[in-house]
Amino acid sequence: MRYHKIPDETVRRLPLYWRVLHSLSAKDQVHMSSKTLADIVHVNPWQVRKDLSYFGTLGTPGVGYDVKKLLKEIGNILRLNGTQKAVLVGVGNLGAALLKYPGFESYGFDIIAAFDKHPRKIGKTINNVIVKDVSQLNDLKGRDIYIGIIAVSATSAQDIAGKLIDVGICGILNFAPVYLTVPKKVTIRNIDIALDLARLPYYMPAKLVGKAI
Amino acid sequence: MRYHKIPDETVRRLPLYWRVLHSLSAKDQVHMSSKTLADIVHVNPWQVRKDLSYFGTLGTPGVGYDVKKLLKEIGNILRLNGTQKAVLVGVGNLGAALLKYPGFESYGFDIIAAFDKHPRKIGKTINNVIVKDVSQLNDLKGRDIYIGIIAVSATSAQDIAGKLIDVGICGILNFAPVYLTVPKKVTIRNIDIALDLARLPYYMPAKLVGKAI
DNA sequence: GGGTGTGAAGGGATTCACAGCA
DNA sequence: TGCTGTGAATCCCTTCACACCC
């Protein structure tokens, strides 16, 4: 079962594994069992082994996995080895926070350009990135940037997505609460912060919730 | 099949439906078919019908669903009717953006308190909320606040989670990239922004990605 | 005709159990 | 003995097909 169809759920967990391996590697740990990894990310050991088995024989029975080797392997699968350039559109409250967010860098992402349509935002420098007018999005063409982050309003998001695709972007992280229609070759990943909050009360004890102020 | 076990995936979609119904209701639309709703949130009509059927007979054959009635019904299920008070801990870049985030309000959430440990943050007023020192978290006791949002660093998150649970919080939206260990009665929902970005390259055309700068 | 509700079929991911190797 | 790799079983969710109702 080598490199057949990889379950999406497996792909979802790989970045978790990658991050743990990255930190273990930094601590010069050489070997690690599926149980160790599983305990840290809170899944079952056989889940880890099954996930990794899709990509070939990566471990050694009786010993475990070679941390550095596995880190590199998962990095290759996810294409996280080497820096990825990204561009951000929408430097409002959320967008500005994303520009400063340290988590992206830990996976090798580098936001090298930012755009907004509001004159009072344009020209500002945030985290070493100068905010430009959205009309200058065209300048990105041919600069080997394939990842875009959308942090504009729901009403502008579709328009911005189109513009990003025009300049060659084929992977979009979308924070706007709206479904984006894009060509098949473009991958969208949506993060809708409020949606996750909205289903929290459902899982909480009934008596506590819903007491209006 | 009435009120048996509701699939988690169904619960995940309900807030989507709720938001659409909310906006249709504001436009005074009276009826709506499963297809209309399905097209907007981009799922199949039978998926919508199956989801709703878990909660009883909500529609009328030949007509569709009564928008206002369905809105109220889903609101009851998710417990979104009435305002929910919430508290935020960690007023860094991300936390400050969350304090100003308009999306929470549209689901009836109201962040009524914010805390940070850095003296230069304490005392600031953001979006009408005064930032207090984390040591004052105890003041929340008995104030009918059950939802907490954690936007602190990975190293502090577990500690903050414990403190929130001590003052009665039983639902936590966690933005820190770490697994939180909590009592069974407490519900955690994790949002790890970088994780979603990290699996974007996997789904993108291989040739484009990984060209180091 | 138009549209809902639902048992049954189908598909995908998790879990199990164990063979096999260091 | 310790730990991986993996077919088989199980579970959960999606999809289908159609009975039934306005």
The structural class of chain A is alpha/beta
The overall pLDDT of chain A, averaged over residues, is: 94
Total discrete domains of chain A: 2
Helix content, binned percent of chain A:
25-40%
- CATH homology group of the largest domain in chain A: NAD(P)-binding Rossmann-like Domain
Oligomeric assembly: homodimer
The interface involving the most residues is between: A-B, 68 and 68 residues
What portion of the residues of chain A fall into strands of 2 or more residues? 15-25%
Report on this model:
Two copies of one chain form a homodimer. With about 210 residues, chain A is of the alpha/beta class. Chain A has two domains: about 10-80, Winged helix-like DNA-binding domain superfamily/Winged helix DNA-binding domain (Arc Repressor Mutant, subunit A), CATH 1.10.10.10; about 85-195, 3-Layer(aba) Sandwich (Rossmann fold). Helix content of chain A is about 40%, strand content about 20%. Chain A has helices spanning about 10-25, 35-40, 45-55, 65-80, 95-100, 105, 155-165, 195-200, 200-205; strands at about 30, 60, 65, 85-90, 110-115, 125, 130-135, 145-150, 170-175, 185-190. In chain A, α7 links the parallel β8 and β9. In chain A, α2 (about 35-40) crosses α3. The longest helix of chain A has 19 residues, at about 10-25. The radius of gyration of chain A is 20 Å and the shape is globular. At the A-B interface, α1, β4, α5, α6 and β9 of A face α1, β4, α5, α6 and β9 of B. The structure holds a DNA duplex (22 and 22 nucleotides).
